[in-house]
Design brief:
The protein has eleven helices and 39 strands. By secondary structure, the chain is an alpha+beta fold. It folds into three domains: 43-148, Copper amine oxidase-like, N-terminal domain (Copper Amine Oxidase, Chain A, domain 1, 2-Layer Sandwich), CATH 3.30.457; 161-236, SH3 Domains (SH3 type barrels, Roll), CATH 2.30.30; 248-462 and 518-558, Glycosidases (TIM Barrel, Alpha-Beta Barrel). The strands form eight sheets. It has an eleven-stranded mixed β-sheet with strand order 27-26-29-30-31-32-33-39-24-25-28. A hairpin with a 2-residue loop joins β8 (110-112) and β9. The N and C termini lie far apart (98 Å). Mean pLDDT is 91; it is low at 33-40.
């Protein structure tokens, strides 16, 4: 009998232990399957959902409401909408894909893409922080805003992103996790619309098993069985700007402000874009335009040949760096120049703009970046491409260190690396204009050190070289176009494997002549770098300096 009682006690103890374990495991499973979908630290706060992501916990300041307007702090607006948002004294400068807006902190008029409009962008200040109106900013950043006051949820959908909707076939629960045991976070009725969240990397619906991740019209995010939805359709697709198909081939068509645009009648093999010298900046910040009838004829020829026209905007007329500094120094000066540029571009009906500003103070680097930031939306608004010249990094203050290459690479559609003038005419030592090793080193810097997307980098290639002359210790040089290169029969000719060029040397009387030749072989090797690093393409300085045979190589390598 005693043994039986002991066995019963052991059995009951074991049974209680097993029940306890089962209970604990069940609780753990329930906690995992149906946790609270809203943490207590969000209670009482307005939640902000941007493109189906709840970013409320990432906000630096709480959202404010005032007179039916939703306000977001300056820092949070910069973080989530506009990384180039600028507080500039008594105004805020905002830029988006297609708009440049200057918002005064007082009640003054707002500058928006070249026009001054009534100030509907009332900025408020609280605890030494500025807050911007999300309702009004929707027209700048191109989004749709909805506010569910009952649930305290603000939802923002970018109008240039894909949006997929579906209809609920019956009353259903929206679950926190993709399982029927998970907590219900919202409900939909038959006929209600839900928005299917997209996996942007894969370009498809966000799905787990037979559940789709959705957002309800209340702004709540959760899961619903795919079988409970019908009429799935994309009500908005991604709006991406068309770029040139394949590798870009561009060529400069340079002429100064005192001559007319060249007359062209023939096609140029391997070329997609021509860069005529239409625009120069004057020292007072005004725009010198050299188009005329010859320029109009040039544009017509280009269109007949299916070539894009990106006129050059140059600062080569300026005699001093101070003038350039003044032009870039204020938003008002920059916007006046930009307004003039846009007006002229629209008049002549071209396809883009090529900005070629050289020789600037290092201290003007940020202001030049602001110029690029502020002109880019204006060009996109009228469907035009922005390309910007950049010299090799790590040079002098006024030649190399005056560019924020990383930022410009983000903002512009293309950057053109000036892959020449490795050795300039003022050098104390004879050298090549563009050795392949130097070009490749700087391509690596553009992609690595400067962090520029390879799909935006166009390699500039020279159609010229220099003939160096050393006489009694004195060194001089002159530019020689590729088509005019003559190699004497008695010249010593050696192929330099590092430079990928033929080096020639010969002597006449007391003068030694040296040249690093640019020809079909050297250009072909540079074009191989475009392929090796999968760059956007190549540009050629400049038309009419080349041999005719070079275009067959360009077409073969690029196209």
């Amino acid at each position: 009998m005693g043994r039986k009682r002991r066995n019963n006690k052991i059995w009951h103890a074991l049974r209680r232990f097993v029940i306890s374990i089962v209970f604990l495991v069940s609780v753990a499973i329930l906690i995992n399957l149906a946790p609270n979908y809203e943490k207590s630290d969000l209670n009482g706060k307005i939640n902000l959902i941007i493109n189906n992501n709840n970013i409320t916990r990432s906000l630096k300041s709480d959202i404010l409401t005032e007179n039916d307007t939703i306000y977001l702090s300056f820092d949070d607006t910069k973080n989530f909408f506009d990384e180039y948002l600028l507080l500039d004294g008594d105004k805020i400068i905002a830029t988006s894909n297609t708009k440049t807006v200057c918002i005064p902190l007082d009640s003054g008029k707002v500058y928006e893409n070249g026009s001054y409009i009534t100030n509907n962008y009332k900025v408020i200040k609280k605890d030494d922080k500025y807050y911007l109106p999300l309702n009004t900013l929707s027209s700048v950043y191109n989004y749709e805003l909805n506010y569910n006051e009952e649930k305290q949820i603000v939802t923002i959908d970018s109008l240039n992103r894909k949006l997929v909707s579906a209809i609920s076939t019956k009353s259903s629960s929206i679950k926190y996790k993709p399982t029927s045991l998970s907590k219900t976070v919202d409900k939909v009725e038959r006929g209600d619309t839900v928005y299917i969240i997209q996996n942007t990397e894969k370009g498809e619906d966000e799905k787990e098993g037979n559940y789709l991740k959705v957002r309800t019209e209340n702004g709540v995010i959760g899961y619903i069985k795919e079988s409970k939805l019908i009429n799935k359709k994309a009500i908005r697709d991604d709006l991406t700007k068309e770029k040139i198909d394949g590798k870009v081939g561009l060529v400069w068509d340079y002429y100064n402000q005192y001559t007319a645009a060249p007359t062209r009648t023939e096609s140029i093999k391997g070329t997609d874009v021509v860069l005529p010298s239409f625009f120069e900046v004057r020292s007072d910040g005004s725009l010198a335009v050299n188009v005329g009838n010859s320029g109009k004829n040039y544009i017509n020829w280009a269109k007949q040949e299916n070539l894009k026209v990106w006129p050059v905007l140059s600062n080569s007329m300026l005699n001093d760096l101070d003038s350039m500094s003044n032009i870039l120094s204020t938003f008002e000066n920059r916007s006046n120049l930009i307004d003039n540029i846009i007006n002229e571009l629209v008049k002549i009906d071209v396809d883009g703009l090529y900005v070629d500003f050289e020789d600037m103070y290092k201290d003007d680097k940020d202001n030049f970046s602001r110029f690029i930031i502020e002109i880019a939306p204006r060009l996109r608004e009228i469907g035009m491409t922005l390309s910007v010249l950049l010299t090799a990094p790590d040079g002098s203050d006024t030649w190399s260190l005056c560019y924020d290459r990383n930022l410009i690479g983000k903002v512009a559609d293309y950057v053109v690396f000036m892959g020449y003038d490795e050795t300039t005419g003022s050098s104390k030592t004879a050298g090549t204009v563009a050795g392949a090793n130097w070009v490749e080193l700087n391509i690596r810097k553009f992609l690595g050190q400067e962090g520029i997307d390879k799909n935006k980098v166009i390699l500039g290639i020279p159609f010229y070289t220099r003939l160096w002359q050393e006489t009694n210790g004195n060194l001089t040089s002159k530019v020689v176009n590729m088509k005019d290169i003559v190699i004497p029969e008695d010249a010593k000719v050696e192929w330099d494997e590092n430079l990928k060029q033929n080096y020639i040397e010969y002597k006449r009387d007391n003068t030694v002549y040296k040249m690093w030749v640019e020809d079909e072989k050297s250009i072909s090797c540079k074009l191989d770098l475009v392929e090796k690093y999968n760059l956007a393409g190549a540009g050629f300085w400049e038309k009419d300096r080349e041999k005719d045979t070079i275009w067959d190589i360009v077409e073969e390598k690029l196209k």
